[in-house]
Automatic annotation (TrEMBL):
<protein>
    <submittedName>
        <fullName>Predicted oxidoreductase</fullName>
    </submittedName>
</protein>
<dbReference type="GO" id="GO:0005829">
    <property type="term" value="C:cytosol"/>
</dbReference>
<dbReference type="GO" id="GO:0016491">
    <property type="term" value="F:oxidoreductase activity"/>
</dbReference>
<keyword id="KW-0560">Oxidoreductase</keyword>
<dbReference type="Pfam" id="PF00248">
    <property type="entry name" value="Aldo_ket_red"/>
</dbReference>
<dbReference type="InterPro" id="IPR020471">
    <property type="entry name" value="AKR"/>
</dbReference>
<feature type="domain" description="NADP-dependent oxidoreductase">
    <location>
        <begin position="11"/>
        <end position="302"/>
    </location>
</feature>
<dbReference type="InterPro" id="IPR036812">
    <property type="entry name" value="NAD(P)_OxRdtase_dom_sf"/>
</dbReference>
<dbReference type="InterPro" id="IPR023210">
    <property type="entry name" value="NADP_OxRdtase_dom"/>
</dbReference>
<dbReference type="InterPro" id="IPR050523">
    <property type="entry name" value="AKR_Detox_Biosynth"/>
</dbReference>
Amino acid sequence: MTIDNLKIPTVALGTWAWGDSGETGDGYFGSPLTRAGLEEAADKAHTAGFTLWDTAVVYGMGRSETVLGEVLKRYARSDYQLSTKFTPQAAGAGDDPVAEMLEQSLARLGTDYIDLYWIHNPADVARWTPSLIPLLRSGKVKHVGVSNHNLSEIKLADQILGEAGFRVEAIQNHYSLLYRGSEDAGILDYCRNRGIPFFAYMVLEQGALSGRYNPENPLPEGTKRAQAYNGMLLQLKALTDKLASIGQSQGAAAPDVAIAWAIAKGTTPIIGVTKPNYIDGLVRAASIRLSSNHIAELEALADAAGVNTRGWWEKQM
């Protein structure tokens, strides 16, 4: 069975924060996003050639998919790629929860196919993975991947799909300078050896690596990310200072360098896009070339910070 190759961008566009209700303090980022602002960001991304959008049912329980679908109506369907996810922990009780959740996603996104469909978290690989096969056969899903799976779970999913003539075509895990579990566990090598794209999320650790925040100017109080990161901003200062100084020498900013690091490691970063000017940073990041010395320096400073940014939803890789 032939598989059309997935077009892998340098950077994918994340819409986790698009699920916020817009009420301050409500939703993950408590961010007042406007439809006009998101359309402007999408237009800028489109012009710059960033066309893969990543979302999930559980981002705002459908709100992210709905908003994304409305924003993307401006373009021909062939002009962008959609990535969304089946989350076992949110599965319904019907006969085929994966197909049912996919149908809901298709309706919200206003499309009849998904370019890249993920099993979001590993609840029971042997139970959920086979449900992807009829969706691939039907054409409603073009490619499949697994997210937050460890190496043995990835191999089991690949084996199940392989028996039907398909395969795991992408991996998506939390991966940043501060959290390199997928590298330590051999998942990056596994992907490299098999030509499987690895999508890295939380590359900027929700802004903690953007250089924008420090103990004097912490992340916005009352948000979940403030709870997670404000206590470690002092330990991160040497690293964010180094990101900024490397950036300065290349006409770029600290977050651009953190993204460039993830690209240099052979991954496709998924970067949350909420403002049009974020796209300028992605363009800069894609053009930065980091020396092996820079990479080693950044990783040493990240290790020296001694922080653990594993998400509450993640198990050890």
